[in-house]
Design brief:
Layout: H1 4-25, E1 47-51, H2 56-67, E2 72-74, E3 87-92, H3 94-103, E4 106-110, E5 116-120, E6 123-126, E7 136-140, E8 155-160, H4 170-184, E9 190-194, E10 199-204, H5 206-220, H6 223-235
Parallel strand pairs: 2-7
Antiparallel strand pairs: 1-3, 4-5, 6-7, 8-10, 9-10
Helix pairs in contact: 4-5
Protein backbone atom coordinates (compact mmCIF):
# COMPACT_ATOMS: atom_id res chain seq x y z
CA UNK A 1 0.00 0.00 0.00
CA UNK A 2 2.81 2.39 0.90
CA UNK A 3 4.77 1.55 -2.31
CA UNK A 4 1.88 2.32 -4.65
CA UNK A 5 1.44 5.95 -3.50
CA UNK A 6 4.92 7.25 -4.55
CA UNK A 7 4.59 5.41 -7.87
CA UNK A 8 1.19 7.05 -8.54
CA UNK A 9 2.57 10.50 -7.77
CA UNK A 10 5.53 9.97 -10.16
CA UNK A 11 3.30 8.82 -13.02
CA UNK A 12 0.97 11.78 -12.55
CA UNK A 13 3.87 14.28 -12.56
CA UNK A 14 5.32 12.75 -15.74
CA UNK A 15 1.97 12.96 -17.55
CA UNK A 16 1.46 16.63 -16.60
CA UNK A 17 5.00 17.51 -17.76
CA UNK A 18 4.44 15.78 -21.12
CA UNK A 19 1.18 17.64 -21.73
CA UNK A 20 2.80 20.97 -20.85
CA UNK A 21 5.72 20.34 -23.20
CA UNK A 22 3.39 19.40 -26.05
CA UNK A 23 1.28 22.52 -25.50
CA UNK A 24 4.41 24.64 -25.58
CA UNK A 25 5.49 23.12 -28.88
CA UNK A 26 2.07 23.84 -30.46
CA UNK A 27 1.96 27.55 -29.45
CA UNK A 28 1.99 29.97 -32.47
CA UNK A 29 5.35 31.38 -33.44
CA UNK A 30 5.35 35.18 -33.16
CA UNK A 31 5.46 36.84 -36.60
CA UNK A 32 8.35 39.12 -37.39
CA UNK A 33 7.24 42.68 -38.24
CA UNK A 34 8.77 44.11 -41.42
CA UNK A 35 9.68 47.78 -41.16
CA UNK A 36 9.10 49.83 -44.33
CA UNK A 37 11.12 52.82 -45.42
CA UNK A 38 8.79 55.84 -45.00
CA UNK A 39 10.61 57.70 -47.78
CA UNK A 40 10.02 54.94 -50.34
CA UNK A 41 7.48 55.87 -53.04
CA UNK A 42 4.85 53.31 -54.04
CA UNK A 43 4.97 51.82 -57.49
CA UNK A 44 2.50 53.49 -59.86
CA UNK A 45 1.49 52.59 -63.38
CA UNK A 46 3.11 54.30 -66.35
CA UNK A 47 1.28 54.42 -69.65
CA UNK A 48 0.86 56.23 -72.97
CA UNK A 49 -2.25 58.32 -73.54
CA UNK A 50 -3.77 59.55 -76.80
CA UNK A 51 -6.85 61.54 -75.78
CA UNK A 52 -8.70 63.41 -78.58
CA UNK A 53 -10.25 65.89 -76.15
CA UNK A 54 -13.54 65.75 -74.32
CA UNK A 55 -15.17 65.97 -70.91
CA UNK A 56 -13.51 65.11 -67.58
CA UNK A 57 -15.47 61.84 -67.43
CA UNK A 58 -14.20 60.88 -70.88
CA UNK A 59 -10.64 61.67 -69.80
CA UNK A 60 -11.06 59.51 -66.68
CA UNK A 61 -12.25 56.58 -68.80
CA UNK A 62 -9.34 57.02 -71.22
CA UNK A 63 -6.82 57.04 -68.34
CA UNK A 64 -8.32 53.88 -66.82
CA UNK A 65 -8.18 52.10 -70.17
CA UNK A 66 -4.60 53.17 -70.91
CA UNK A 67 -3.20 52.46 -67.44
CA UNK A 68 -5.18 49.37 -66.55
CA UNK A 69 -5.83 51.00 -63.18
CA UNK A 70 -8.89 52.83 -61.85
CA UNK A 71 -9.00 56.60 -62.25
CA UNK A 72 -10.91 57.89 -59.26
CA UNK A 73 -12.09 61.35 -60.29
CA UNK A 74 -14.80 63.47 -58.67
CA UNK A 75 -16.33 66.11 -60.95
CA UNK A 76 -18.80 68.74 -59.77
CA UNK A 77 -22.00 68.96 -61.87
CA UNK A 78 -21.13 72.42 -63.22
CA UNK A 79 -17.85 71.06 -64.65
CA UNK A 80 -19.21 67.84 -66.20
CA UNK A 81 -19.45 69.38 -69.69
CA UNK A 82 -16.13 71.23 -69.52
CA UNK A 83 -14.14 70.76 -72.73
CA UNK A 84 -10.62 69.48 -72.08
CA UNK A 85 -7.90 69.79 -74.75
CA UNK A 86 -6.45 66.95 -76.79
CA UNK A 87 -3.62 65.14 -74.98
CA UNK A 88 -0.87 62.92 -76.35
CA UNK A 89 1.69 61.75 -73.79
CA UNK A 90 4.15 58.87 -73.51
CA UNK A 91 5.30 57.00 -70.40
CA UNK A 92 3.50 59.14 -67.82
CA UNK A 93 1.73 58.58 -64.53
CA UNK A 94 -1.69 59.91 -63.64
CA UNK A 95 -0.11 62.38 -61.24
CA UNK A 96 2.19 63.71 -63.97
CA UNK A 97 -0.75 63.97 -66.39
CA UNK A 98 -2.91 66.04 -64.03
CA UNK A 99 0.05 68.20 -63.01
CA UNK A 100 0.78 69.01 -66.66
CA UNK A 101 -2.87 69.90 -67.27
CA UNK A 102 -2.90 72.18 -64.24
CA UNK A 103 0.33 73.99 -65.09
CA UNK A 104 -0.66 74.50 -68.74
CA UNK A 105 -4.01 76.12 -67.90
CA UNK A 106 -2.90 79.29 -66.12
CA UNK A 107 -4.88 82.16 -67.65
CA UNK A 108 -5.42 85.84 -66.95
CA UNK A 109 -9.03 87.05 -66.81
CA UNK A 110 -10.79 90.28 -65.95
CA UNK A 111 -12.11 90.68 -62.41
CA UNK A 112 -15.40 92.27 -61.44
CA UNK A 113 -13.71 95.64 -60.87
CA UNK A 114 -11.74 95.62 -64.11
CA UNK A 115 -8.57 94.20 -62.53
CA UNK A 116 -6.72 91.19 -63.93
CA UNK A 117 -7.04 87.89 -62.06
CA UNK A 118 -4.79 84.85 -62.56
CA UNK A 119 -6.76 81.61 -62.50
CA UNK A 120 -6.31 77.90 -63.25
CA UNK A 121 -8.91 76.26 -65.48
CA UNK A 122 -7.90 72.59 -65.12
CA UNK A 123 -6.98 72.26 -61.46
CA UNK A 124 -6.84 68.53 -60.62
CA UNK A 125 -6.12 68.00 -56.91
CA UNK A 126 -5.67 64.98 -54.64
CA UNK A 127 -5.27 64.85 -50.87
CA UNK A 128 -3.35 61.56 -50.98
CA UNK A 129 0.26 61.51 -49.84
CA UNK A 130 1.98 59.69 -51.35
CA UNK A 131 -0.01 59.46 -54.56
CA UNK A 132 -0.98 55.94 -55.64
CA UNK A 133 -3.01 54.41 -58.47
CA UNK A 134 -5.98 54.35 -56.09
CA UNK A 135 -5.75 58.04 -55.09
CA UNK A 136 -8.95 60.08 -55.36
CA UNK A 137 -8.75 63.21 -57.53
CA UNK A 138 -11.20 66.05 -57.84
CA UNK A 139 -11.48 68.84 -60.37
CA UNK A 140 -11.56 72.42 -59.14
CA UNK A 141 -11.35 75.59 -61.17
CA UNK A 142 -11.45 79.26 -60.25
CA UNK A 143 -11.95 80.53 -63.80
CA UNK A 144 -14.52 80.38 -66.54
CA UNK A 145 -15.02 77.23 -68.56
CA UNK A 146 -13.05 77.44 -71.82
CA UNK A 147 -16.16 77.00 -73.97
CA UNK A 148 -18.15 79.69 -72.16
CA UNK A 149 -18.38 83.29 -73.28
CA UNK A 150 -16.41 85.58 -71.02
CA UNK A 151 -18.28 88.79 -70.33
CA UNK A 152 -16.07 91.76 -69.59
CA UNK A 153 -17.15 94.17 -66.84
CA UNK A 154 -18.43 97.54 -68.03
CA UNK A 155 -16.71 100.58 -66.52
CA UNK A 156 -17.07 104.34 -66.99
CA UNK A 157 -13.96 106.46 -67.50
CA UNK A 158 -13.44 110.14 -68.26
CA UNK A 159 -10.70 111.53 -70.53
CA UNK A 160 -9.65 115.16 -71.01
CA UNK A 161 -9.33 116.23 -74.66
CA UNK A 162 -8.26 119.81 -73.91
CA UNK A 163 -4.65 119.30 -75.04
CA UNK A 164 -5.76 117.70 -78.32
CA UNK A 165 -8.37 120.18 -79.53
CA UNK A 166 -5.87 122.75 -80.78
CA UNK A 167 -4.69 120.19 -83.33
CA UNK A 168 -7.66 117.89 -83.82
CA UNK A 169 -11.40 118.21 -83.78
CA UNK A 170 -13.65 116.12 -81.55
CA UNK A 171 -14.75 114.21 -84.65
CA UNK A 172 -11.10 113.40 -85.45
CA UNK A 173 -10.63 111.82 -82.02
CA UNK A 174 -13.92 109.91 -81.94
CA UNK A 175 -13.43 108.63 -85.50
CA UNK A 176 -10.03 107.22 -84.55
CA UNK A 177 -11.55 105.58 -81.48
CA UNK A 178 -14.47 104.11 -83.44
CA UNK A 179 -12.09 102.67 -86.02
CA UNK A 180 -10.06 100.94 -83.30
CA UNK A 181 -13.18 99.54 -81.63
CA UNK A 182 -14.61 98.24 -84.93
CA UNK A 183 -11.39 96.36 -85.62
CA UNK A 184 -11.79 94.55 -82.30
CA UNK A 185 -15.00 93.00 -83.59
CA UNK A 186 -17.06 93.86 -80.51
CA UNK A 187 -19.92 96.30 -80.13
CA UNK A 188 -18.49 99.82 -79.69
CA UNK A 189 -18.89 101.36 -76.24
CA UNK A 190 -21.02 104.38 -75.44
CA UNK A 191 -19.35 107.77 -75.44
CA UNK A 192 -20.28 111.41 -74.93
CA UNK A 193 -18.37 114.68 -75.18
CA UNK A 194 -18.94 117.46 -72.65
CA UNK A 195 -18.15 120.65 -74.59
CA UNK A 196 -17.88 123.03 -71.63
CA UNK A 197 -15.13 120.99 -69.95
CA UNK A 198 -13.64 119.22 -73.01
CA UNK A 199 -14.18 115.87 -71.32
CA UNK A 200 -14.81 112.63 -73.22
CA UNK A 201 -16.89 110.11 -71.25
CA UNK A 202 -16.61 106.48 -72.32
CA UNK A 203 -18.61 103.52 -70.99
CA UNK A 204 -17.17 100.15 -72.07
CA UNK A 205 -15.14 97.15 -71.01
CA UNK A 206 -11.47 97.39 -69.94
CA UNK A 207 -10.17 96.30 -73.35
CA UNK A 208 -12.09 99.12 -75.06
CA UNK A 209 -10.92 101.59 -72.43
CA UNK A 210 -7.35 100.53 -73.12
CA UNK A 211 -7.90 101.41 -76.78
CA UNK A 212 -8.81 104.94 -75.71
CA UNK A 213 -5.52 105.29 -73.86
CA UNK A 214 -3.57 103.97 -76.84
CA UNK A 215 -5.28 106.30 -79.35
CA UNK A 216 -4.81 109.38 -77.17
CA UNK A 217 -1.21 108.42 -76.48
CA UNK A 218 -0.55 108.11 -80.22
CA UNK A 219 -2.22 111.43 -80.96
CA UNK A 220 -0.09 113.16 -78.33
CA UNK A 221 3.04 112.23 -80.30
CA UNK A 222 1.89 114.50 -83.15
CA UNK A 223 0.96 117.51 -81.04
CA UNK A 224 4.40 119.05 -81.37
CA UNK A 225 4.34 118.65 -85.15
CA UNK A 226 0.87 118.97 -86.62
CA UNK A 227 -0.30 121.41 -83.98
CA UNK A 228 2.76 123.66 -84.28
CA UNK A 229 2.44 123.81 -88.05
CA UNK A 230 -1.22 124.75 -87.81
CA UNK A 231 -0.42 127.50 -85.34
CA UNK A 232 2.34 128.81 -87.61
CA UNK A 233 -0.01 128.92 -90.59
CA UNK A 234 -2.42 130.98 -88.52
CA UNK A 235 0.14 133.80 -87.95
CA UNK A 236 1.87 133.84 -91.36
CA UNK A 237 0.74 135.05 -94.76
CA UNK A 238 0.93 132.64 -97.76
CA UNK A 239 4.26 134.22 -98.76
CA UNK A 240 5.70 133.58 -95.31
CA UNK A 241 5.51 137.16 -94.02
CA UNK A 242 3.93 137.79 -90.63
CA UNK A 243 0.19 138.25 -90.75
CA UNK A 244 -0.91 141.69 -89.66
CA UNK A 245 -3.79 141.63 -87.19
CA UNK A 246 -6.92 143.30 -88.49
CA UNK A 247 -7.63 146.66 -86.98
CA UNK A 248 -10.68 146.92 -84.84
Amino acid sequence: MNLKLPLLVFVTFFAVASVSAEAGNNSPTPQRRVMRDPSAQPEVARYSLNFPGGTPRELSAAVAQASGKPCNLIVAPKFENMKLPAIRLENVTTSELFTALRESSHVTEWGSQGQTVNTIRYNFITMSSPVTDESIWFLFTGGLMPDSKQEQPVVCRVYSLAMYLNDYSVDDVTTALTTAWNLQGAEPPKLAFHKETSLLIVVGDPVQQDSVNQVLSSLSLNLGGTGSNQRVRKVLEPDGTPKVPASK
